[in-house]
Amino acid sequence: MQIGLIGLGKMGGNMRDRIRAAxxxxxxxxxxxxxxxxxxxKDLVSKLSAPRVVWVMVPAGKVTDSVINDxxxxxxxxxxxxxxxxxxxxxxxRHAQELDRKGIAFVDCGVSGGVWGKEAGYGxxxxxxxxxxxxxxxxxxxxxxxxxxDEGWVHAGDVGAGHYVKMVHNGIEYGMMQAYAEGxxxxxxxxxxxxxxxxxxxxxxxxxxxxxxxxxMATALAKDPGFDKISGFVNDSGEGRWxxxxxxxxxxxxxxxxxxxxxxxxxRQDDSPAMQAVAAMRNExxxxxxxxxxxxxxxxxx
Amino acid sequence: MQIGLIGLGKMGGNMRDRIRAAxxxxxxxxxxxxxxxxxxxKDLVSKLSAPRVVWVMVPAGKVTDSVINDxxxxxxxxxxxxxxxxxxxxxxxRHAQELDRKGIAFVDCGVSGGVWGKEAGYGxxxxxxxxxxxxxxxxxxxxxxxxxxDEGWVHAGDVGAGHYVKMVHNGIEYGMMQAYAEGxxxxxxxxxxxxxxxxxxxxxxxxxxxxxxxxxMATALAKDPGFDKISGFVNDSGEGRWxxxxxxxxxxxxxxxxxxxxxxxxxRQDDSPAMQAVAAMRNExxxxxxxxxxxxxxxxxx
Amino acid sequence: MQIGLIGLGKMGGNMRDRIRAAxxxxxxxxxxxxxxxxxxxKDLVSKLSAPRVVWVMVPAGKVTDSVINDxxxxxxxxxxxxxxxxxxxxxxxRHAQELDRKGIAFVDCGVSGGVWGKEAGYGxxxxxxxxxxxxxxxxxxxxxxxxxxDEGWVHAGDVGAGHYVKMVHNGIEYGMMQAYAEGxxxxxxxxxxxxxxxxxxxxxxxxxxxxxxxxxMATALAKDPGFDKISGFVNDSGEGRWxxxxxxxxxxxxxxxxxxxxxxxxxRQDDSPAMQAVAAMRNExxxxxxxxxxxxxxxxxx
Amino acid sequence: MQIGLIGLGKMGGNMRDRIRAAxxxxxxxxxxxxxxxxxxxKDLVSKLSAPRVVWVMVPAGKVTDSVINDxxxxxxxxxxxxxxxxxxxxxxxRHAQELDRKGIAFVDCGVSGGVWGKEAGYGxxxxxxxxxxxxxxxxxxxxxxxxxxDEGWVHAGDVGAGHYVKMVHNGIEYGMMQAYAEGxxxxxxxxxxxxxxxxxxxxxxxxxxxxxxxxxMATALAKDPGFDKISGFVNDSGEGRWxxxxxxxxxxxxxxxxxxxxxxxxxRQDDSPAMQAVAAMRNExxxxxxxxxxxxxxxxxx
Lengths: 302, 302, 302, 302
Known about the structure:
The first copy, chain A, is an alpha/beta fold. Chain A contains twelve helices and seven strands. Chains A, B, C, D: It holds the Pfam family 6PGD.
């Protein structure tokens, strides 16, 4: 089938390749004209035959809002937009309502797999009506990994359900990574363990903790044992935050995923206001020495 | 080669089969005579030619202590004991010292893989001297999964290092399982997500969270969607506790693995003394209603 | 001065008494006519001389919304509403805007102190313009504890700031209570400590952990040592949730307050879906026994 | 009565003053001869009349071990040693057994109150036999705050129970401080709150969170609003670690106190090995940019 694809970055660019490799026609658009197949959105729309399917693969939030808004003026009733970015599920509901007024259908699709997806395929989590999801199925089948469809793709529910499942997926991802990371730090601290990279690699087969992330961890350790080259500064892209906020909203205990998120927050702080407060209180009651700004700390006190 | 194997339960029994299938001779001993190849430990030792290798696969702690102690009286200088159970690494150091006085060598080996190991092979994490570990290598090769040796087996360091790596492996396992579990609970709470089992299954290919545990979770959900049949009562076998205690000892932050451990503690409490204390304090300051023993709780108060 | 007071429950009723005891005139309204000074809101408004000050002390959310909406139709330009309930700060911004269109001023005020406030005074945290806050000052002075004004009252900022500070106050309260509660549970578990209630009481003077909550804990333990009569079922009233959601929004690590909140969530669950998931995964990989619904658990497995 | 006091530092020196002010005779010893009343331990013992009471107030662990060992050679049967330092309760049991062989009695006493204790009195938590504790009572009464004895002193159980209660006291202290600190960080992050120091001060009277630590926090903020002068580097002195390890040993969930401890660990790390691991994994799967050592981080990525 024919599809328009907006956003040809790290994810979108690879997806264009994979969809084309499956025999479909892709008209891609990017603000970078060197890689774009269309001059602008209007040009992209004009190159597609109605009823059109356009996949939006741009940063969540304002950029996605703006692209979907622009598209809604260019597309016609009967066309369909897929939002494949990392949008919040509440954005999906809003987008679907706005588009519905113009007769444009909407499907949300969480996409997992990172830079490996081009070759290995992408894990896909969709939301929308049966009819709308079915319309995009040839593209889903092109993007998802080989194997049974239900092992790499799910129609999770109505509009928003796809991004919701992807959001939780990312929350789980935070927790898993933090679990490996804590284990790594302890292994690295314990003198008895001579070869931490080898331990991580040895978990690849037969163990309970084997996983793709564990393999990536082994790969990373093979390249840079001891992590001498990189800093422990870790961003978060929104989905972990939404997962925790949703858990709080629904009364779901979420100690592990929240702890993983908070560890990322801490990793980005030059100094911790909270720990300054603790240092200040200790100084007040115990005369415990405080470390002045710019000083190196002292580790023991009595 | 020839090996003695003590303990033919869920793990040991399968391991005997797998070692035999690889062409080695196994003399197994178990207190259950129906499955045992030897009448008693003395009989087992008599059936092995010196220098002997005996693999101990019994519950950690007192049982392992007792078996190793008994063996140390029956074996000779030049023999070797492998402890493949879930022993604490500090036990290994003690066992190695005691055996060394009699000239008996000692290797510790953490074994992962559960009931699936018989067919898929076991992930193995060893500690001991190069020479001693090398002596057991044919058995390690029989037990570990097919594929490159370093993807299912590691010689992690001196005596104790194998069980240490296995201990941390289990701590990570706790954290991973809790991450999936928290994600599950949120998905199950959110009405927008229509098919939670399908979501877990769809993560099998292409996603960042794909893993063996994720596949097992999908399998479990396929059998019992909604977990109507089982209770959220979860044991712990020691290794998670040791992992957290070691982290505290070494000043390693371990929020995720400790939270996973504490969640298991809570899961086994009929009532929480801590939460009784919170309820009592709230009642004192605010006249907030408390729930009497045996009553059903009220969920909102002002 | 003269003030209208809407809501004469556990908090509002005591506040009416305390304000009157300070020599001010209070016209109270409650849906319970037996304790109400006015037939209805219209009657209340008619009994106050313009420019009026009306303090709203009803449950946050829909009830507060409804009362403020009704009042906005009955009051005149130049009147002022104080919301003293546990409203979310975002509600304050909305209320202030709506009222401003009619020329009605708005002040938010978080009130702490529970049933003890009538005698001891209430801790007050206000938000609004200098002019509006100043107008209510005689009432604030009547309600707050004796002593310097700045030790029991704060003008924290513009509209919403009062409830924001109160929200964080409650989040801290959750964390403090959980800290005492965890300490209690450990003391109660350790056979070496013979008299846990005495230990809590002994912390009243001289120690670092002395506090009002600690005194209440000692009082509660004196009444019911061992907490044999009450259940560990703990509600939450919204502010803890908002505190954590705000922390997530602002990238503030909040491990302790979130853990306290999650402990309350768990305390209200008959069974934990997350722990059912963990039990199910363990059963899949290790053949670990699961506890069926209705069964008592088994504590050890191998 | 007469008492020997070993260790005249920040705590011991003040305690000598307070005991003397109550009319007792104190022979103090310190390695700093300028403040010492005795040349050495032998001299101290010779200046006391049998049966002697000697209070040891030196750093826990090796120093306390060494002083108690030296004293055990100098004292006679019938004498009594009080360990008032921050010793681990397991040390108490060992010390009591060693001293018992020589007929020397032993009492452990946790002392809280910091530099404020000289004037306000110290919170005391004792362990030992009724007879031994009774013998030291005049000194306990001198050290504890004015008011009812049971509000500043407890005989918690046999040897070790005093330090156990003090250990848990400190664990609770960690949790409380972290709760205030998290609340502080959120208030400081929220632009709507104009005067965070004033908010903390306003909690002094009437609120649920009022406490001595809250007053100290208000004092610290008054001196250095915004904590511009001090660094968020926080030590721990052992008791928090033991509290968490004991909780793990006894199966007591302790999310808040452990999180407080871990936050201190993190505060002392130049870089976090765990977060390096997370950054490395993210880079592997997503091509997420990593921050090289020495670089400033980038906060957003897509």
